[in-house]
Amino acid sequence: MKLVVSRESLQKGLQVVQGIVESKSTMPILSHILLSAEDTTTISATDLDIAVREPLEARIEEPGSVCVPARKLYEIVREIPAPELTLETQENNWVTVSAGKSTFRLIGLSDEDFPTFPEVNAGEAVEFPAFELHDMISRTLYATGDSDARYTLNGLMFHLNPEKGTVTFVGTDGHRLAVARKPMPGQIREERKMILPKKAATEVRKLTEAYESPVHLTLTPNHIVFRFEDILFITRLIEGSYPNYEQVIPKNNEKRMTVGRDDMLGAVKRASLVGREKTFPIKMELREGAATFSSNNPDVGEAHEQLAVDYGAEALTLGFNARYMVDALQNLPGEEVALELQDSLSPTVIRQAGEEAYFSVIMPMRI
Length: 367
Prior knowledge:
- The protein has 3 domains: 112 residues, DNA Polymerase III, Chain A, domain 2 (Roll); 123 residues, DNA Polymerase III, Chain A, domain 2, CATH 3.10.150.10; 114 residues, DNA Polymerase III, subunit A, domain 2 (DNA Polymerase III, Chain A, domain 2, Roll).
- Helix 1 runs antiparallel to helix 2 and helix 6 packs antiparallel against helix 7.
- The strands form 4 sheets. The protein has an 8-stranded antiparallel beta sheet with strand order 6-2-3-4-17-16-15-10. An 8-stranded antiparallel beta sheet has the order 14-11-12-13-25-24-23-18. A 5-stranded antiparallel beta sheet has the order 5-1-7-8-9.
- A hairpin with a 3-residue loop joins strand 20 and strand 21.
- Helices cover 19% and strands 42% of the residues.
- The protein is of the alpha+beta class.
- It has 7 helices and 25 strands.
């Protein structure tokens, strides 16, 4: 195989797969990309749960395929100043990368060792505007579990409900909940609840960040296929039952506080500076027109932060994890947020004031 490719095109293609290749896997092939130059040139990568294939604009001088270390090739391409590179295979799968006065030789692997792409049978299809898919994932991904023993929490729940005409993304780690809901584009025959792995959701969010065309999704029982024009992205779904998130959302929170989002975000951050770092506990004391945020640490001291708010109900004191509140506020759009409250032991709902599409639920802490 021998091909000539622009540095910019190759660097862009390698960026797409960096989050997918497994650098610490016990299978060396998973740290490699498959570079294939036949009628067209493509880059492929997989970790056995996620697979991606993308086109690469290149001039093919000799067809062929080889597996190249993904991270090392990316580092080389990023540092080379020349506008074009030549990649050529040699005996025993060695790969020469040359540009100007620079030459590198990398130990490759046979293309026969590269895992085959998962076989995905035809399924129902739906299209999403890329910006909506990016927005819904971004508003919920932060709340997913991280290596949680309850493995279904290590992903985003993707809920298509044709009866209500909605699509919902849900993230939770058992202590907090983030929900993004929009009208469903197109028609789906039956209700679907799918758990998208956190890693896959993160990579889809990256792909949609600078993508303008609609994203085409094919839904099967075990996989979702995302098509971004010429880029094919396949992910295996997490098997199991996701918690009934609707039961967690409070229905009777009658007390309501509204405040500037940035004002509250700053107050919570400052009040938590002296708090205990493992649990980040913070107290919020509400009275008419004002909120006081405070924390204390026997080894450090105390912090108090007062903030003018729109609140007219009875006085209320509650505790929460400051980090959870900061995450929720940072991932809500708009300049003003509303907190829906009941009592010190009930979950708090946080949403953009006057907006139903996005909201978070935070469980209380005893302080």
